[in-house]
């Protein structure tokens, strides 16, 4: 192969990921399923009226999907006796909201069979739930295809006890900057954490038999009561944002600055010199947080997407079309 041919071949390989990304576009279903986003929105709105916690559920589902094999709905596949899926991995055992995706998919299949991907349903449903909870309203490009692999061993997500450098390594591997990581972790403005994820901060932090000194003593006392209330193997939960627990706003960052971050990684954002300035800026300006969160969510929805002829459009979001499990 000549030098020029090699250069052209290499250039084409470089372009392939960008060409795939270009296939995502706002209004992708305008001609093939014009009411697609309206159908998803209707399902989400009805569920939100009955349960405002679905915003946190969708944010978590979307993150856990996109940070494994990309935004391909691989998290939706059910395990079978013969083959386990991502759902069986430890970090995904408390992911919820799958039945809402099922409801939207059923309605979409009735309106436009085999047209709208499960991956797009997750992304649009997350966007709509964020808006309903007081967060930003933004356009999201669609056109994702569904993946055909779902394996628990692929699930390797940043943990609740990570330091900022450890978490940043995981986010950088997906193309995110430090600022974008801090913004996306602001999704903890809604939702809860099981006591098991932060129990060590309350009484035996790093083997000291003392609470984490970076946590507000009043919060330690409050959480000890909450976490001590579990009986019969139940692991109680606490709101990640103790202020506006169901609203997507910048109060999460204000809580962190007051040493009221529940998860260690959340509090680390306010302690690490690389991120504390970002936290302070976002805590002081809700409008800036809203804009930044919208941009970061759009970018996350673009991570390693399948487009064109890659993957498939599942008929049932829980099962591969060819039943290959």
UniProtKB/TrEMBL annotation:
InterPro entries: Haem_peroxidase, Haem_peroxidase_sf, Peroxidase_pln, Peroxidases_AS, Peroxidases_heam-ligand_BS, Secretory_peroxidase. Removal of H(2)O(2), oxidation of toxic reductants, biosynthesis and degradation of lignin, suberization, auxin catabolism, response to environmental stresses such as wounding, pathogen attack and oxidative stress. These functions might be dependent on each isozyme/isoform in each plant tissue. One of its GO terms (cellular component) is extracellular region. The active site is at residue 64. The keyword Zinc-finger does not apply. This is Peroxidase. CDD domains: secretory_peroxidase. Disulfide bonds join 33-112, 66-71, 118-317, 195-227. Binds 1 heme b (iron(II)-protoporphyrin IX) group per subunit. Binds 2 calcium ions per subunit. The keyword Translocase does not apply. It is found in: Secreted.
């Amino acid at each position: 192969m000549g030098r020029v041919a090699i250069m052209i071949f290499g250039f084409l390989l470089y372009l392939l990921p960008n060409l795939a990304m270009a296939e995502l576009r706002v209004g992708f279903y305008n001609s093939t399923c014009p009411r697609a986003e309206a159908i998803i929105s209707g399902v989400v709105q009805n569920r939100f009226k009955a349960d405002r916690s679905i915003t946190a559920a969708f944010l978590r589902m979307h993150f856990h999907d996109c940070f494994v094999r990309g935004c391909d709905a691989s998290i939706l596949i059910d395990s079978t006796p013969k083959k386990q899926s991502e759902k069986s991995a430890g970090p995904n055992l408390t992911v919820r909201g799958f039945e809402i995706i099922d409801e939207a998919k059923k309605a979409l299949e009735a309106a436009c069979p085999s047209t709208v991907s499960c991956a797009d349903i997750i992304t649009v449903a997350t966007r709509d739930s964020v808006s309903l909870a007081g967060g930003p309203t933004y356009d999201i490009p669609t056109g994702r295809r569904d993946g055909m692999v779902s394996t628990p061993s692929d699930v390797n997500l940043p943990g609740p006890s990570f330091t900022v450098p450890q978490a940043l390594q995981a986010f950088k591997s997906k193309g995110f900057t430090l600022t974008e990581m801090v913004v996306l972790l602001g999704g903890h403005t809604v939702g809860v954490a099981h006591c098991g994820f932060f129990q060590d901060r309350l009484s035996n932090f790093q083997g000291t038999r003392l609470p984490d000194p970076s946590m507000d003593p009043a919060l330690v006392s409050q959480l000890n009561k909450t976490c001590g209330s579990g009986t019969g193997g139940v692991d109680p939960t606490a709101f990640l944002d103790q202020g506006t627990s169901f609203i997507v706003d910048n109060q999460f960052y204000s809580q962190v600055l007051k040493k009221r971050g529940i998860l260690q990684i959340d509090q680390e954002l306010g302690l690490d010199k690389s991120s504390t300035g970002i936290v302070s800026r976002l805590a002081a300006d809700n409008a800036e947080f809203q804009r930044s969160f919208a941009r970061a969510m759009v970018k996350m929805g673009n991570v390693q997407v399948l487009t064109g002829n890659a993957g498939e459009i599942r008929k049932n979001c829980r099962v591969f079309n060819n039943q290959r499990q």
